[in-house]
Design a protein that fits this description.
heterodimer, A: about 290 residues, B: about 270 residues, alpha/beta, six-stranded mixed β-sheet, four-stranded antiparallel β-sheet, 8 helices
Chain lengths: ~290, ~270
């Protein structure tokens, strides 16, 4: 009866503690090297940019200058932007992104599961979905700007459309890939159709869905910013648009930097969410540290 | 008395992806009495699993009748347990949730389901592992979960599809003995599919030999070895060897046919 417990619970490497310590030390040393090289790369990259623009080899009017970008950010932070306080612009873009992401991913999961579970619906709608997927959907931002106005809604709609398709395709595929044996097992154990969906199909498709959330948050950000470019009164996209019109390369870069920070923070939040949602999985295959 | 399970002249055909028709079972007749432990042996891929799928109601028969307790099978019904060949426990549920699934699907409250699940978990020797996820368990432990999961519903019929084929030999013998002990405490009829003749004789009251696909029953043997049996020792008895020789002569030809076919690549 205890073939199980005895075999599993043996501390690995207990026989050779020296080896374990040596390996850990080696691992730490490598981590340190990687960190140092990363910092060095940044110094070389930003330093050479700064130096070449200062020396006039590269025209800072077109390509910006790191110190100028830092200065621009500082001015925005302390004195506010032309559109108002900086935090309001970031908050506006964040709001559009998060709302678009939520709307798009919820719709994507619902429609994906529905079509994945229902053959007839899938057959009827698949040509339309393929057609809709093949057009470059960012241009819908222009349509939404006309129909929904220049406020929040048009940006949320653009972001949601971008997110929807990615999440939808993943949810649909995830539902299709559910192990036949698991379905058969649940049916024999007495699960009805609703239980099959909620307890077998959706948890099983969850790995696929979560994987798509990583990509789709980035797309939501793209949607929000593109929506702002089509016309807005606030937001980081609008900041970038203004900077562009003033031939302010530093402003464009500063805006990009803000977006990058937002995207990285969101990415780490989604990774945390993933860890909570699929804690049953042996090795989460998230690839955030490239 | 009605048989617990009866297949009358059953044929099962599948449409192949290439547009052809594959006949898995042809004119198969098979009866299992109530409380009987029947083993079905046959060469790999001959249609043994299909037989179980028909009894379970997962697949309809193309022709013939499938009766459980004298009633025609039409769809998945209560009172049947199924242990799959590959892991079919739910990876996102803990051991406790996996075993409690059956009672919950039958409308039991959460607390009652968990209580019954705890009881079954300790019966299969997994007490203390209630909160583990399947990937944290060994193959043998996952089989125990699968056994508890299907037995908790109190099935009158237990279908087992090469349940222990993926286990190492020692674990396998252990599990076979435990299966016999668990089965003895129920009144369930068992259909145990395997390609291992030794396992079939050691466990069963009756062994059906199937032909290489399309499968039909070639031989039907009574195993008159005394119970309770110890699977690890019963193999040394003279009667065991006799039965083995007898059934193997029947099975061998089918295995050869199946082997020849797989070499030709059909």
């Amino acid at each position: 009866m205890n073939d199980l417990a005895a075999a599993t619970e043996r501390p690995a490497g207990a026989a050779a503690p020296d080896l374990a310590i040596a390996r850990r030390r080696q691992h730490r040393r490598r981590q340190l090297t990687v960190q140092l090289l990363r910092v060095l790369t940044a110094i070389v990259w930003i330093g050479s940019w700064e130096l070449t623009t200062r020396a006039g080899v590269v025209d800072k009017f077109f390509f910006g200058q790191p110190s100028g970008i830092a200065q621009r950010l500082q001015t925005w932070a302390t004195e506010g932007t032309a559109l108002g306080p900086l935090w309001q612009q970031v908050a506006a873009t964040m709001e559009e992104t998060v709302l678009g992401f939520l709307v798009g991913s919820v719709l994507g999961v619902v429609v994906g599961v529905l079509l994945g579970r229902n053959r007839l619906l899938a057959d009827v709608f698949s040509p339309y979905i393929k057609a809709a997927n093949s057009i470059p959907r960012v241009v819908l931002g222009a349509l939404f700007a006309i129909s929904l106005g220049l406020d929040l809604r048009s940006k949320v709609a653009t972001a949601a459309v971008l997110v929807f398709f990615v999440v939808f395709f993943n949810a649909f595929q995830g539902v299709r890939e559910v192990d036949r044996n698991l379905i058969a097992n649940a049916r024999i154990l007495g699960a009805d159709s609703r239980r099959l969906t909620t307890e077998i199909v959706i948890p099983s498709a969850m790995s696929w869905i979560i994987a798509s959330l990583h990509i789709s948050f980035g797309l939501a950000l793209v949607g929000a910013v593109v929506g702002e470019l089509f016309g807005a009164t606030q937001g980081v996209g609008e900041l970038i648009y203004n900077a562009e019109h003033n031939f302010d390369a530093n402003g464009v870069f500063a805006g990009m930097l803000l977006l990058a920070v937002v995207a990285l923070v969101a990415e780490s939040l989604i990774t945390a969410l993933e860890g909570r949602l699929i804690k049953w999985r042996p090795n989460p295959v998230t690839d955030v540290t490239i | 008395m009605a048989h617990a399970i009866e297949l009358r002249d059953v044929t099962k055909r599948f449409a192949t992806p290439g547009g052809g028709v594959h006949t898995a079972l042809r004119s198969l007749d098979l009866q299992v009495a109530a409380g009987e432990f029947a083993a079905v042996v046959g060469p790999t891929g001959c249609g043994k699993s299909t037989t179980l799928a028909l009894i379970a109601g997962l697949e309809p028969a193309s022709a013939g009748q499938v009766l459980v307790d004298g009633r025609q099978v039409d769809g998945v019904a209560d009172g049947i347990g199924y242990v799959f060949q590959t892991d079919a426990v739910f990876p996102w549920k803990t051991v406790l949730e996996n075993v409690a699934a059956g009672p919950r699907y039958h409308g039991a409250g959460g607390r009652e389901a968990r209580e019954r699940a705890r009881d079954w978990i300790s019966r299969v020797g997994l007490a203390g592992f209630e909160d583990r996820y399947p990937h944290q368990l060994s193959g043998g432990m996952r089989k125990r979960v699968a056994l508890a999961q299907s037995l908790i519903n109190g099935p009158q019929i237990l279908l087992m599809d090469e349940p222990f084929s993926a286990l190492d030999v020692q674990t396998r013998t252990l599990m076979e003995n435990e299966l016999l002990a668990l089965w003895a405490s129920t009144s369930a009829s068992v259909v145990f599919v395997t390609h291992d003749l030794e396992e079939a004789i050691a466990l069963a009251d009756r062994v059906f030999v199937l032909t290489a696909g399309p499968a039909t029953v070639k031989g039907d043997y009574r195993i008159d070895l005394a119970r309770p049996r110890n699977v690890s020792e019963i193999r040394f008895e003279t009667r065991f060897a006799q039965l083995y020789r007898e059934i193997w002569s029947d099975l061998r030809d089918e295995v050869l046919v199946s082997y020849e076919r797989s070499r030709r690549g059909d």
